[in-house]
Design brief:
53% of the residues lie in helices and 2% in strands. The protein has 193 residues and is mainly α. A hairpin with a 2-residue loop joins β1 (18-19) and β2 (22-23). The longest helix is centred in the C-terminal third of the chain and has 37 residues, at 120-156. It starts with 17 loop residues before the first strand and ends in a 19-residue tail after the last helix.
């Protein structure tokens, strides 16, 4: 049985014919069934070595970008505990001053070295001196906490003060300046704005 189709006029351009500088039809040969199937074929399991290496490289690049952003104090990369204007103010307040807590780690190293010496009196006094020094560090932490809270109340208002701000500032005093994250944004002696 013949198909019902409109008759094609004799003067219609055939496929591949050029009319007025433009090709008539699609301009290429119809791909065979084998060619279409080959183009559609993909492996069931992707090349895992290449995909994993690419994913690892992307993740490493993102981590490095986040690390640099956090060190610079970029708010987009800061963890939740470091975000906010009051936290930044507290960081700047701590970074502007000198604190005894910065010397805790070096003092502990000196005490450990003193324990290797065979002089019992030196070992004893080194431990006693360390404990006395730690008491002074705790006092400095308390003073810093109170002064940061007072400065934040003065600048931002007493009703808007975040919880845990004093502890946040006190714990920053114990870290050595070059190890603090986010990195200090003010010089020593320069009061925060």
């Amino acid at each position: 049985m013949a198909k019902n189709s409109a008759p094609v006029p004799n003067d219609a351009p055939s496929e591949g014919t050029v009319l007025n500088g433009t090709p008539a039809g699609k301009g290429r040969a119809t791909p065979s069934r084998a060619e279409r199937e080959a183009a559609r074929k993909r492996p069931l399991v992707p090349d895992t070595k290449e995909a994993k290496a690419r994913a690892r490289a992307d993740l490493a690049a993102q981590r490095e970008k986040a690390r640099l952003g956090m060190a610079a104090g970029d708010p987009r990369y800061l963890p939740a505990r470091d975000q906010g204007a009051q936290r930044k103010f507290a960081r700047d307040w701590v970074d502007a001053g000198w604190h005894l807590g910065e010397a805790v780690m070096p003092a502990m190293v000196l005490v450990i070295l003193a324990t290797f010496l065979p002089i019992a009196a030196l070992q004893y006094y080194a431990f006693v001196g360390l404990w006395i020094f730690i008491l002074f560090v705790i006092g400095d932490m308390v003073i810093t906490s109170v002064s940061v809270k007072r400065a934040v109340k003065k600048k931002f208002g007493a009703d808007k003060m975040e919880k845990g701000l004093g502890w946040y500032a006190a714990m920053r005093t114990v870290q050595m300046r070059f190890l603090r994250l986010p990195k200090p944004q003010v010089k020593r002696g320069q009061k925060p704005a």
